[in-house]
Structure formats: structure tokens, C-alpha cells
Amino acid sequence: MKDRFGIDWKRIAEDHGPGSPFWRRPALTRRNFFRHASGAVGGYFLLPELNTETIARAQPTLMGTAKNCIFILMRGGPSHIDTFDLKEGSWTPRELEPTTFGNIRWPRGLMPKLADQMDSIALVRSVKAWALVHGLAQVWAQIGRNPVAGSSKIAPHIGSVAAIELSGQQQDATLPAFVSLNVTSGIGQGYLPPENAPFFSVPNGSGLGNSRHNDGNARYDRRYGLLLEMDSPLRSSPELGAAPYQTGTYNLAARKLVYNSKVDEIFTFDAQERTRYGTTNFGNSCIAARNMLRARSGARFIQITTTDWDHHDNIWGSPTTGHYLRAREFDPALAALIEDLKSDGLLNETLIVAMGEFGRTVGNLTATRGRDHLAQQAVLFAGGGIRGGRVLGSSNAAGNGTAEPGWSGSRDIRAEDIEATMYSALGIDWTTIRRDDPLGRGFEYVPGGAAGIYKPIHELWT
Amino acid sequence: MMRFRSSGPCAATLLLGFSSGLSLLTAADCSLRPEQDKRLAREAQARLRLYEAASKFNARQASAHGLPAAEIPRRNFIDEEIFGKLQSLGLPSASLTTDGEFVRRIYFDLTGHPPSPEDIRSFLNDSNPGKRRELIDKLLYSKEFVDKWTLWLGDLLMNVAFPQNFDRQYFARNAYYEWMKLAIANEKSLKEIAFESIAATGNSYDNWNGGTNFILNGIVAMGPIQDRYDNMMRVSTTTFLGLSHYDCLLCHDGRRRLDQVSLWGSRMTRLEAQRMAAFFARTNLAKPSLPTTEYYYNSYNITDRTTGNYDLNTNFGNRPDRLPIGEMRFLTPEYRDGAKPADGNWRAAFAASMVHDPLFPINMANRFWKEFFGLALIDPEDSIDPARLDPANPPPAPWALQASHPELILKLADAFVEGDYNLREFLRILVESSAYQLSSRYEAEWNITHLPLFARHYPRRLEGEEIHDAIVKASGMRTMYTIRGLDDTPWAMQMPEPVEPRSNGSSTNFMIAFFRGNRDSQFRIQDGSIQQQLNLMNDPFVLNRIRLTNSANMRAVAAITDDAAAVEELFLLFLNRKPDSRELKIAADFLSRAGNQRNTYLEDLAWVLINKTDFLFNY
Description:
Helix content of chain A: 25-40%
Number of strands of chain B: 9
Radius of gyration of chain B: 26 Å
Radius of gyration of chain A: 23 Å
CATH class of the largest domain in chain A: Alpha Beta
Strand content of chain A: 5-15%
CATH superfamily of the largest domain in chain A: Alkaline Phosphatase, subunit A
Oligomer: heterodimer
Largest interface: A-B, 86 and 85 residues
Strand order of the largest sheet of chain B: 3-5-4
Structural class of chain B: mainly alpha
Number of helices of chain A: 11
Mean pLDDT of chain B: 88
Shape of chain A: globular
């Protein structure tokens, strides 16, 4: 009997089918499961004897079509059957106005502006989350691996890996390569150097906060010069350890943002602009992201986190609450972003990925008139040279399992595959294993990537 | 005293005896387990900081050799263990810290505030050889100590007015805060604090009963009532016993899932975990039925029913189905040592078992150790593996004893119990040790494997509250914050929760870059960031406080006509130490160029000191 998450726990023993718990992997052997998910101290005796270096060392094909990536985390997990994987029934409010665009069924009433951008959008509907707990699943999606595994203790955000790979190509590095908008904190750079840390900002259009000195530019320069002189021994000789040493790096990066006209332009935008993007925090972050890319400011991986989609109660409460509200914040902002990047000629070189940490239960609403967590989910892709205006993969009629995987992996698509897709788009070899990790075990960009267990969805480009 | 012997067929059975009772721990095999989701980012960041401290160390230091561990004075059993181990490994220790470094460190670690120039001078000038112990004693009994440890306890017990899963409301948050503050001020034993947190009965808004607020953390969104019983047990065992693995076991057996993370967990079953949760099956958390105009309208009454069991009859919610086992349709409580409560208050029975559980003092000692030494002896501190604690009965290969210093953590637990679970007396033992009083400077070659050996002191970044209060104290400019339901205060260390002061957006905005967290979905982390640097350089919070027009202490500095003396006073105010000769020269030269702008240049110097790397760290 399925619970509110659409999970039938009774079939744990044998069932590897849709809806099974995340630790039951349909396509992996037990051995590979431990190889992927272990890494914990004491677990290596279960690993295959193969030296991972010798596996698949031939250079894999990289798409390399994108210079930038915008990763939109739809925090809380949006209802996929009311957004990217529309399933119509008595539960579908009329306001959604389901409309057909090619072979895509889309809630035009809810997201009309994105409807106009359909030819740039690909919807992937055969995606499954590994976990149904917010924290765990959100971290999983952002580091592209099991947060419990030993290597995850030091694992960087996908954006930090992108930063360390791409920052060598920078002409201009006004902004850090990894920027995280609409939040003040989040997953960081793991064991990678501080240059790859996310720069957190909640843009409001009135310039970058604290990038001006109230006592004036001249006085700031005088003070800063004295600071460098006074502090230089401590900055250059980290005898107190790494954390004080890193502080110097953050300080120099901060210095570049102060009284910087390029930064001012990026973070200053007027009411008209804000209105066009929906007059929301999410919209403002989309404007800032666009500005950063336009200015070729050094930001290459931009995460934007939305407000919460966790609609357990009253998902359709009123036109100004619940899922209505979120969709109406999401729609104008992302649509304007796609449109503007297109007209700037930047869309083809910017991969956009929008996903939550999981999907939501299907069919009729719950007793609290909402939807609960579900592993089945759908992801929106745009830009980066992908072929838009179509669906990749499909879910079953209810929307709580995969019917057609729709790609060469022939199985549910996972966070690790999406991670590999982003790296491949950016021209980063996702099978890379770094040998500089403090645990001395090698850090895989994509767990199991070198062994071909997870891989990019190259079908997006064909 | 504790006795260890193995018995029975199960190789990792521990029998621990205390004068206050016996606990039998059994263990079983396990595999991988899902980490508590709320802790993930925090753990990763904390570990990272420490890993990087090792790996990035400047190789120039390798030319010096450090101090042989045998030469460090052994003041108590901590030193015997720490330096004994270093000696046996042939690894050098850092030197002991200087008085100048010690005074700043101990003030921040015990009270969350830096010493004043007067405090520093009197300490440095004191020739009494026992002055460190006297200073420790003075700080342990200071007002600021109460604030700091109320804040610490507030983090541990998760005091939040509006967490994700329920509304505690301001009144209960304040009652909880004041209950903790009074407990710390009156030296209430941590055993009593823990007991009350589980067993208190009454209304969440009542100050004298603030302990009722802990068990509210068990409230979960959605799901059957058993999800709540499970969660009440989980928050209790994680907080007070370090057994976060119960979160996994409440969904499934440990076998084949926790095999690689917890030996104890791998042998535990879901049934055993649920029997622990059953202690809460008669607990009632309910809002009183009152008109909205009544004071207690949104409060919770925490009471217990006289009947009811943990029913095995769920097929929805946050955890897998709970189904009858043969004819057994419900569970009654059984503690992990086999104890079953008599009829009566099951919740109080759990509380009694819990505070007599050998893991209780081990867990508390471990957490306090982490606070002062930067790394827990058993890491991560909420994932203790009871099957891997006993050095006399080590686990089978490939498992190893979990603690970095297995004898030490048990001795610390003993000391905590022998001191009647008194916070101040236990902390005294920690900070009087030479191990705590080592320098952060390590003169030999550093290696990542040295991390859990504590051969040096680990610098830590100051918390947002400490940075705020350090600037306010140095400046003398105090902005009073209004906190709903509590007295106005200028000190961030007195905030009842980290999202305060809600009433002052600009101060909260300054502090937000320092990742105080919200005790609910985001925990405190020690990361640095670019925004922190922008805030220290440009935030009006900082700039306003160093202006002479606002700062009495700056005006006093300006009245010192001798430049060198003025510079020294500034360093003592903001960096809590004297300048070295190089710094003094640079600063005095700078001032000498001021002309008739001396006041302005003094403000510049203050800004420089706040933005100096060593301002931000407790080393």
C-alpha cells in the first residue's frame, strides 16, 4: 500500500521498481552501490579490486557548448505534475489552462511567459531523487553525490568544481567564478581553495551591499593601504593555520568589489526592470545573473535558490498563495532571463537547469489539501546549445514512476547524471578524479563517473 | 568507577557499572546509515576547516622543531593522555601559549567577550605564578560566563521561537531562555537540566518550567502520532547521548545499512529503536483550548496520559509502515539497557534512564571538549558508536576504537560525573590543562594526521555574536536592542536566539554574514566569506562605532598625546594585545603624518585593527 509519498514500503525486499526507497538501486549491483555510497572509513574492503585510474581513461566526449551555467534550485520540491510534467485530472485547477505546445503539455495559465519560450526549453521527465528529506536531498542535488558518503565530508558544491576548472580561462575575474544568489549561506567549496567559494548575495537592485565606504573612497583607500602594510606578515605566513590564511584571500576578493563600476552596473537595476522580472527576490536575482553574464564579469556558475515550494498544505489555497504564488514568481523571471540571454546572444553558451530536490505526490490532494514528497521529479533545461521545444523521457500515467527513460542510460536519471551533464556542457571532464584531497582517496567529480555508472544526458543536444 | 568486561557470545558487549546504576549495552553489525540531514553542511564545513588547517600549513615552518612532548608540564590527566600519546609517537608539541595570547583566548572561550585594556594590563603585570588559575576562576563566576553558556545551551537545546515544524512563540522561547540562564547562573547540574528537558510537565510559557520546551522539538510536520514519538526520542538521544543513528533505526534495521558507519547501529533493529520511542507514547503535547485573547492561547501543555501504547498500525507519514508482528499489535517501552518502566510516567522513566546512561557524561564531555579544542574526541559528536568505546574490549577488525583518545574520553566522563555534572568545575579541568594552553603556532612540520593529536591549539573564527560584542566593547557605543518579552540589551551574547535582534535590521545584517544559523534548518558554521570582509570593511555598524563622535573609548585614546601610547591603547582595545615593534612603527609613522587630522587618523587605525586578520580569530 502506498504511503503519502507514493512509496510502497512493503515491496522493499524485491522491488527495484518505481517508488522504491533511494537505497534500492534499480540499475546498480550491490557492489557498485557500496562503491558509490560508501567511502566511509572502514568500507573500502567492499570495493572492487579495480584501480579506478585504469577505467575509462580515454577522454570522454564533452559537449563543451557552454561557458556558463545557471542552476536554479527550486527549494522545497515543486509539484512536478503541476509544472514540468503536467498530469491532468480532477485535481487540476482550471486556472492552469493546460495547453499543448508541440509534444509538451504545459500549464499556460500558471506560467504563460515561459510558454512563449517553449522552443528554448527541454523538459526531462524521467528523473528520480535519491532521498525524500529536504536537507539530504537538497545537499545531494548540489554536491552531486550522497551527502553521507565519506568523500562528502570534503565535497565541494558543483559550482565550486566548475569554478576551479573554469577560472583558469578568465580574462576578467571581477566576481568570483561561483555566485550563489537569493541566499545568505549555503553549501560551499568543500576542500577546494577559497577562491572557489560561492559568493552569496541577495540583490535588490540598489547596488551591491557594503561595496561603498561611508567615509568616502579616498579615505577607504588610505585605510586599506595601511591595512595591507600592517597585516602582510600574517597574510603571507600562515603560521596560525589555514583559516586565517584564507581570510586574506576573501579580503582581496572583497576589495575588488568595492568602488567597482562594473560591479555597480551588475547590481543596479531600476523599477521597470524589476517589474518585468516579476518584482520578486527571485526576479531580482535573475536580473543580476543576466547582468553578470552580460558583463563577462568572471561569474561562470550561478546558483539561484527560489523560495519554498514545499506545499504539504493548501497547495491551491488562493491565487496569491501556495503553488500559484510560486509559479507566478518563477514564470516571469525565468522567461525574461531566457529572453534576455537570447537577445544578448548568450543563451547558446549558458546552460540553464531548474530543479527541486524531489517531486510531489500525485493524483488527488492529501487530507490537508496539499502534496507530499515523492522521488519522481522533472527537470527543466534551457540554453547551452540544447535542443528545445521537446520532452525527454516520460513518466507513467500517474506521474509517480518512469515509463520511458528517454536516454542511453536506460534508467531513471539521477542527480549525479545531471551533475555530469552540467560538467560536460561546460567542457569539464566529469570522469576526473582529483588527487589533491585531504583524505588521500581521490575525489571524483561524479561518483562512479570514470566507471560509467553516471553520465551526462547528451541526448539533450540531439 | 567504570568496570569493563566482555560477556556473552556477542563480541562487542560492554558492561559498564556506575555507583548510580548498571547499563548493559549490546551491539550488532551494521552498514551505511543516512546522516542526520540537518547536520550535513555543518559537519562538512567544520571538518574542512580543520583539514585545511593541516594541509595548507607553510612549509617554511618545517625548519624549526617544536617542543618535545615530555617537556610540557603535566597538570592533570588530560595532559597525561595527550602528551603521553605524542611522546609515544615521537611527535613534538607546540609550546605553551604566552600570557598575552592566553588572556584573550580564555576571555573569549569562557565568556564570549574580549578582555579590556585594563584586564590585559593587570594580568600581564601580575607576577603571581597562579594567575592563570585565578583568572579562570574569576571568569567562570562572571556574568558574561552565564550569557555565553546560555547561548551555547540554547544552540544545543534548539531554542527557536518559530522553527519550521511548529510555533514555539516568543513567550515560550523567552521562558526557555530564562530557564537556561537561571540554570547556568545557579550552577544547576547538567544532569538536572537534561532530566527536566525530557520529563518536565506543564505549560511551555511558564518561566519556571522552561524545560518543557525541549520536548516540543519532537513535533513533526504531517504523519501519524508515532512519528512524533519517534522524533521526541530522536532529539533526546541525539542531544544528550550522541546517538543520532536512532534516526536511521526508526525507519529500518541497521543490518546491511549501517555496516560501514556504526558497529552498534549495524546490530540494532527497528524494533529496539521503536521500543525506545515507546517511552513517549503517552506524552501529550497540545495547545490549550482557549479564546485567542487569552495569554496562553498559543502555548503548549506538556502532559502525560495514563494509558496508551506505541501502536503498530501506520501506513503513511514520515516513516515506513508500522505493522503488527505476529499477534503483537503494540509496543511497550524498553530502554536500550533492557530496563522497562513500571506503570506510571514513562517519560520520566526515560529521562531517568537517560541521565544514568554511561553515554550521557561521555556525550557531554565530548561536546565540551570540542568547544575548547576545536575537534571532538569522538567525531562527529552526535554519532557516538557505543560498540567502539571500550579500550579494554576493542571492536573486531576492520573496526577501530572510535575516539582519538579512548582512555581520555572515558576519564573525562568520569570526572564530569564525579564533579556532580557541574558545568564550571568540568570546564575548569579542561582549561587548566597544558593541552588547552598550547600555542596555535606549531614550529615543526605539520601533517594532516596530526589533527586528532592536539599537538597545538586550533584557531577558531569568532562567532557573529563575539565579533559584534568585541566591536561594541572596544567602541563603548552601545545600541540598546529591543527583544520582545525580554529586557533591552546591547549585547549580542544575550540574544535568546540567533535571528535576533529582529528589531534592528542593520545589526542583524552585519552579523548575518558570519553564519550564526537559526538553530533549526541551518546550524552555525565557521566558514569565512567575501561578504564577511565587505561587512568588516564597509558596514555602517563598524564605521559608526569607531567614530570619535560616537565612541567614548576613541575619545579617550585621542586624549593620549604620545603617539606610541595611543597606538598601544588602540591595539589593547581592538586586538586585545600590545603591538609588536614593527606594527608600532608603522602605526606611529602613520599618526605622525596626520597633522591636524589626528582624530581622523586614529579612526583609520581603529578600522585597520578591526580588519586585521587576527581580529577575526580566537587563537
